[in-house]
Sequence to fold (122 residues):
Amino acid sequence: MSTAATKRTRPHAGPPPLDKDTVPEPGWPVRLPRLAAMGKGLADPNRLRLVLALAQGRKPVGRLVEELGLSQPLVSHHLKELRLAGLLKVEREGPFVFYEIAGPQVLEALRVLASLARAGAR
Fold:
């Protein structure tokens, strides 16, 4: 069988392996656990809704509860998970707790993921 015929019948094996041109910076494998934690932090529709609600700016927990129509304990749980994943920052001002997105990279990552979702992750 020719090489060309083999390539046509071979099932898709996924993306090519990372090489020196696709790795963003030296030492990236050390950060894989952190990257996995961030991915896990975004792996819930309600957490994604919270991040998108915070895209408009810093908000107290009570406002997020009202905007999303979720219970306060559920919102607090998801906010804690997003904070532990490094995706949100928290500030306390008197009796109020405010959350905000940790940086513009969080929203950029969501844009990239949304683009992949639209493309159907071929």
In short: The CA atoms of residues 112 and 118 lie 10 Å apart.
